[in-house]
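User: Can you predict the 3D structure for this chain?
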Amino acid sequence: MTLMDRLAALSALDALAVLALVAAFGGISWRIEHPKPSNPSVSWMMAAYRRAWMLEMVKREPRIFDSQIMASLRQGTAFFASTALIAIGGVWRWLEILRRSPAWRRQSSSARCPRCCGSCVLRPC
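Assistant: Here is the predicted structure, written as structure tokens:
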């Protein structure tokens, strides 16, 4: 099945929904990056603050404190991203263990596959 075959199966309402999603995403992105002067966004304020801080940092001689701040900013986001991935992986594994447990199978006996003998639980054969 090619991409065109798959797209041909979609209706005009599907195309309209995708268009609305893209328009909403673009509108929100534009609104965040171009706020009203009376009501600036956090992203815009942080960019202005960083720009002013960098201009001040260029004017004076380098200090260890500045390099520590830059290192902590870089490591903070990396730590958050790696921690989030570990947490997502842990939840995913916990759900897989839960799904394979006998107690879960007893509770989900009504969720058996309708296409076969019913031996596959929660997965179509």
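The radius of gyration is 26 Å. The mean pLDDT is 78.
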